[in-house]
Amino acid sequence: SSNVMSLKKSFVILTKSIINEINLLNIPILDFQIKNKKMANITLGGNPVKTSGELPTVGSQILDFELVATDLSTKTLSNFEGSKLILNIFPSVNTGVCAASTRQFNTEASTLENTKVLCVSRDLPFAQDQFCAAEGLENVIMLSDFKTGKFGKDYGVIMINGAFDGLLSRSVIVTDDSGKVLYTEQVSETGDEPNYKAALEAL
Question: Which residues have C-beta within 8 Å of that of residue 110, sequence separation ≥ 6?
Fold first, then answer.
């Protein structure tokens, strides 16, 4: 019995030591942070995938964030104050569907009044910039969550298993100019495009 207690005590001390070391290295502990949260169930190529949480509820205020722009500056919600927002969230610009959604929202954005389209992924800002330059996209703002993954955690959109584990799930969030959430979509199959019409009609 005393041996069991001693082993348990040693395990607790070791666990705390490991967590402290990780904290010193400033590495996000996503598995600890998402524990016990509600998760969305989606698919990737038909295979079940879970996300780290659920999207903000309609009627709530959008959460603040820190994301990296293509010029490596940090952007927060205050940078877009007073504008309606469409957050086009996806795994990577290097996949066909993600590229298609970015092109589509780029086309739509040119006709929208007082509206900014923020395209958010965990791609490096360099890759996002190269993609926009190659595609001639000028009406969307590319932002990266590559540094900490905090945006993905806060918004409940990190895929926590499957081939895209650690990337952001395909989803859309629309807000008014005060930051109130008007519409959300967690695309159920990652290989499908979002419902552009519904997102635009929510504005």
Answer: 139
99 vs 41, 104, 161, 191, CA distance in Å? 23, 9, 23, 12
Tens digits of residue pLDDT in 15-29: 444 444 434 444 444
119 catalytically annotated: no
- Burial category of 121 from C-beta neighbours within 10 Å (exposed 0-12, middle 13-18, buried 19 and up): buried
**Which bin fits 184, alpha (ψ -120 to 50), beta or left (φ > 0)?**
beta
Distance between CA atoms of 51 and 92, rounded to whole angstroms? 16
Choose the catalytic residue: 89, 98, 182, 187: 98
Output the pTM of the full model.
0.80
Write the pLDDT tens digit of every residue in 44-70: 999 999 999 999 999 999 999 999 999
